[in-house]
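Go through the following before class.
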Amino acid sequence: MKNLFKSLPILVVVAIASGFTLDAIEHQQEDKDRIEVSFNRKMEFNDLVKIKLDLAEAGITIQYRLLEFDEQGGLKSLDFKVDCNDGFSGSAKSREILNQTRWGFYRDYRKDAESPFGTGGL
């Protein structure tokens, strides 16, 4: 668990430096115990690969079971399964991802978290 907390700031820096928006991986600096991934129509294939690699560094496994892109290369639909490798796992599927969509998953590691894990609408 301590290694995860050490890697979260690195994950955020990598996410920012890679050029995809904080919509992809949101991390509030005052709340270092939460990881949130939000998919939207602006994302392209390379963004999803980067998310998968960054999550793996944080100890989270994500498997994309269905990927569909529009004519411009934007993410249109997605079916994924996520495993936080600590007893929390789940999946979600969306056939119509839009630019304003807040859809994906989160893992909140705080002991007093109202909900430690969720998939789907954020």
Observations:
- The longest helix spans residues 2-17.
- The CA atoms of residues 108 and 114 lie 9 Å apart.
